[in-house]
Amino acid sequence: MFLCSSGLEVLVPKGVILPPGETTMNPLNWKLRLPSGHFGLLKTLNQQAKKRVTVLARVIDPDYKGETGLILHNGADVTFPDTALLFCLTLNALD
């Protein structure tokens, strides 16, 4: 993960391949402890949306303690390797 202007950039783990038309669950191999009063939201960045790769609604509840993953859908006609996929995690206040 890397800091970006709107949150944390999330790289898809090595070895993930996203075939055309497929929806896959991809573990990120990390856990989060969110600040009190906040939830996490994994979002598609513009560069991925242009490729027609989207993260399906992925809210991370404040009390969630399991492993975090990305549910990705490839709406394009080409396969994307892990090096082509980047998403954003934002922290949002509950109020």
TrEMBL record:
It comes from the Eukaryota. Residues 5-80 form the dUTPase-like domain. It holds the Pfam family dUTPase. This is dUTPase-like domain-containing protein. It comes from Equus caballus.
